[in-house]
Amino acid sequence: xxxxxxxxxxxxxxxxxxxxxxxxxxxxxxxxxxxxxxxxxxxxxxxxxxxxxxxxxxxxxxxxxxxxxxxxxxxxxxxxxxxxxxxxxxxxxxxxxxxxxxxxxxxxxxxxxxxxxxxxxxxxxxxxxxxxxxxxxxxxxxxxxxxxxxxxxxxxxxxxxxxxxxxxxxxxxxxxxxxxxxxxxxxxxxxxxxxxxxxxxxxxxxxxxxxxxxxxxxxxxxxxxxxxxxxxxxxxxxxxxxxxxxxxxxxxxxxxxxxxxxxxxxxxxxxxxxxxxxxxxxxxxxxxxxxxxxxxxxxxxxxxxxxxxxxxxxxxxxxxxxxxxxxxxxxxxxxxxxxxxxxxx
Length: 345
Ligand code: PHE
Prior knowledge:
Number of domains: 2
Distance between the termini: 80 Å
CATH architecture of the largest domain: 2-Layer Sandwich
CATH class of the largest domain: Alpha Beta
CATH superfamily of the largest domain: Bira Bifunctional Protein, Domain 2
Number of helices: 12
Bound molecules: phenylalanine
Order of helices and strands: HHHHHEEHHEEHEEHEEEHEHH
Helix content: 40-55%
Strand order of the largest sheet: 1-5-6-10-9-8-7
Oligomer: single chain
Number of strands: 10
Strand content: 15-25%
C-alpha cells in the first residue's frame, strides 16, 4: 500500500491541470466513489491492527495532498473566469436582430381591409373547408351546371350519385357570403378576406392557392350604380387618384348582371406591356348584382332587398401594385423579394 501511495504521490505532485475540466477529472480519479482513495481504503481496512496506525497517518497525508492540489487550481481557474468577465467590454454595440417585413399579400390585404372598413364594411371570415351547399348550391350553381367545372375544385369528399354530400376546399370566399346571409338580415355590408384553392396548373399567372377579398352589400334599393361607385372609390384609394377603370360584361351563376372590372395597367400606364398582355388593362375583380335566387336560398326576401357582390384576387392586385411578374414568387419565401417590403407599413 505504501508503495502505491508513493507512486501516486509522485503523479499528483507532477500534475498540472490546464483547465477546470482536467482538474475535475483528476478529482474524480482520486476522490470519486470508485476512485483511488477508496480503493486504498479497502486495502487499509484489511490490514492487521498494529499496521493500521502508521498506514492511517500516511493515508491521511495522501488525502490532504490531493485536496491541496485541487484547492490550488480551483482558485486559479475560478479567478481566470472572473477575469474574463472583467475584461468584457459592456459598452460594445450588440448584435442587432434583423426586423422582419410584412408579406406583400398581407400588405395589400391590410390596405384593402382599411379602405373598406373606412366606408362602413365589416370583416367576416369563414371556414376553408366547405360543403357543397355553401360553395355551390346556395350560390345558384345547379347540380349539373358546367360552371362547377369552371371552379377546378379540390374535393375532400366526393359523392358522384349525390353531389350535395360533397366536401371541398373552398374555391372562393363567396361561401362566406352565404354564411353571412343565412345568419343575418339586411342591411349587410361586409368583406370576406381569405385563402382559396383551385386545382389549376401552376404558371406565372395562376396558382392552386391564392387569396381573395369578396364583398357583399345587401339593403333596400341597392343598385349597380352603388356597385360601380364603391369599386371606383376602392381603386382610387388603393392605386391613387385618376386610376382609370372599365367594366366588361361577364358571367357568374350568383350575380345578374355580372361584370369584370379592369384597371389601367400600372406597369406601362396603359400603353401596353407584357404584364397587361399589351392591352393596357389588367383584370382585378369580378362583380355583379346578387341573383335573387341566391338571396332567397339564404332566407332573404328578394322582393324587398337587392345587393351587390364583388370578388378581388389579392395576388393579382399585389402583382400590379408592386410590379411582380410571377405569381409563384408569393409562395417561395425568397428573402430577396420579401426584404424589399421592409419600409412598408
Ligand atoms: N366568386 C367569384 C370568383 O371567385 C368572384 C365574384 C364574387 C364574382 C362576387 C362576382 C361577385 O371568381
